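A further point concerns the way the authors explain their paired sequence and structure data. Each protein is reduced to its one-letter sequence and a matching series of backbone shape codes. An entry of this sort, consisting of the sequence and the corresponding backbone structure tokens, reads as follows:
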Amino acid sequence: MSLAFDPYELGGVRLANRIVMSPMTRSRAHGPGAVPGDLAAEYYAQRAGAGLIVTEGTQPSPVGQGYPDTPGLHSPEQVAAWRRVTDAVHTAGGVIYAQLLHTGRIGHPSLLPDGLHPVAPSETRAAGQVFTHDGPKAFVTPAALTDAGIARTADDFAGAARNAIAAGFDGVELHGANGYLIHQFLAPNTNRRTDRWGGSPAARARFGVAVATAVTAAIGPGRTGFRISPGSPVNDIAEDDPEDTYLALLTGLAPLGLSYLHVMEAPRGRELTHRLRKEWAGTLILNPHTSPEPTGPDELRLIEDGTADLVAFGALFLANPDLPARLAAGGPYNSPDRGTFFGGDHRGYTDYPRLGQEA
């Protein structure tokens, strides 16, 4: 039997296998409280056979919301609602991390309460549109974060991480990928700062390290993962030569002793994946690039050959809630319904909202 079905120790927690359910935006937290409902508990509990579940992106603060009806982890009401989800997953024998996602410039004022406006490292507007309750709207020019705003944002992540543990999560994943706020600091086309937060690869990596430092101080490094997507163009990101930036990021993260590094591969990204694997001493989760198909059973070989410690599956997990059992049996597999996704993300359609239909 493949190593993929062997138990794995992650941050002091025993995983039943090395198969990860990738984070995928659901847009099901309806209402002003941005709380997950009973459907979320059912949805995640159905997939508790994963060695690790990473939830949909969950905003650490009101201004971090970039899509309609996405859940938060910044209020007591949200903590109580997520507790029902984690209880359901744990009862089913699963392990679950909350993904903390601040969308930065990817959003719109109409999605935010109290007159808030999207923020980013620099006043650079993203090309394209965002889905809102009133239909697609063009992205707006974000407000550049001040030093005080950067410190406050790191504190927001730390507070959300504490809330995640109070809600029963086994840990959190910091979303530093797919063109959202942490990634916006990493990328030279979205970070045009000339202060200590921009300019060089090490300076652009500083914000991600600051967020991770605040979160590990709040909940411990063994409960903190970090996700990256080097070279990905999603959400109008341009990283033509990302190696130096991501090696600088790993250098900053290494002393923290994080639970894992989660790599979303971009096209032609395997060479960089191998380089990151060599430089990262801890656990590496890989969401491999498999375009035009979703990640499938053949990618389990990446565990066998040492490319990754765990492999993340997206769309196939939506269509097959019992995916680990099907992988162990060699199938059969239900086919994902691609027509229900916006964005056409080749890596399991992660991080795009599905509006109006359920998995």
In short: The longest helix spans residues 147-166. Residues 81 and 211 are 25 Å apart (CA to CA).
